[in-house]
Amino acid sequence: MTAFAGNSLFCRLALKNTSIDAATFSFIRIVSGALALWLVVRVRKEGPKAGSWLSAFALFAYAAAFSFAYLSLSAGTGALLLFGAVQATMIIWGLRKGERLRLWQMVGLMLALGGLVVLLFPGLSAPPLGGSILMLGAGIAWGIYSLRGQAADDPICETAGNFWRAVPLAAVLSVALMPWAKLDRAGIGYAILSGAIASGMGYAIWYTALPGLKAAAAAAVQLSVPVLAAAGGILFLDESITLRFLLASVAVLGGIVLVVIEKRRALTPVE
Q1: CA–CA separation, 119 vs 9, rounded Å?
Q2: Which of 9, 47, 189, 248 is 20 to 30 A from residue 96's alpha carbon, by CA?
Q3: Which residues contact 235 (CB under 8 A, 6 or more apart)?
Q4: 164 assigned to some structural domain
Q5: What crossing angle do the helices spanning 22-43 and 202-209 adopt, rounded to 10°?
Q6: Phi and psi dihedrals of 65, rounded to 5?
Q7: Which of 108, 84, 69, 46 is nearest to 261 (CA)?
Q8: Cα distance between residue 79 and residue 229, in whole Å
Q9: Are 86 and 146 in contact, with CB atoms under 8 Å apart?
Q10: 3-state secondary structure of 133
């Protein structure tokens, strides 16, 4: 989870404190992640032959929208919007597939969605609408990517293959926005750290840990990411936390906890 929060911090650091542009940052991040994962699968004497173009497009859409959103959002707000959208996407997909929510799960879902509305409602402390829409889109894309990866036989190889397929997509975006491209040593460094460490190695560690976690626990532990990102934003980016953000965080994270806990109870057999 520290690696996931690190993505928010590295991206915000690069786009706030250096001159690198969002498209170039996304391209370098995806290439670095692809190379890091290639090394992992090579050590395992395998190749990144798995994955799919649809999953790669979802990964690319997430990474690109994520970067452009952080041109205007703080680290904590971006992470809250991202993971709120991820969880909402996965819950709604489950409903579409026939899953049924219990009463407290419905309350939790409404509470979480209400928290996002509170955060985005017009006002002096509301985050920029454009950046918020982009981050919500990034969350939906990551939710779709996560859903498509649930049935993967070898998640690391799947992820490696998806990263390699995402490289040409990121290259097309970078070339299309070439007139506005800006390179910066520090920005390139943050992009490499975000791609190779926080994304590539972070995903590898996460997928290695997943078999030892129950689904409910895996979902719940991800709720720590916005908190970690907000704390990092305060420590490293001199970002402040508003009352609106705190209230929205309690609503979004608390609501999702209700959904996860009630789901776990529903799946626990009665002895």
Answers
A1: 20
A2: 248
A3: none
A4: yes
A5: 50
A6: -65, -40
A7: 108
A8: 7
A9: yes
A10: helix
- Using DSSP's 3-state secondary structure scheme, residue 71 falls into coil
Residue 269 placed within a domain: no
- The residue with tokens 């209700």 is 258
Task: Compute the distance between CA of residue 220 and CA of residue 249 in angstroms, rounded to an integer.
Answer: 14
One-letter identity of residue 19: S
pLDDT tens figures, 111-138:
877 877 777 776 656 788 899 999 999 9
pLDDT at 157: 84
Q: 155-172 burial, b for 16+ CB within 10 Å, e for fewer?
A: bbbbbbbbbbbbbebbee
In the chain, the amino acid numbered 72 is S
| pLDDT on residue 173 | 96
Alpha carbons 118 and 100: distance in angstroms, whole number: 26
CA distance 203 to 209: 10
The range of the structural domain enclosing residue 108 comes to: 2-264
Count of the separate structural domains present in the chain: 1
Which residues in the chain come in under a pLDDT of 70? 45-49, 99, 101, 122-125, 150-152, 207-223, 260, 262-271
Residue 271 lies in a domain: no
110 occurs within a structural domain: yes
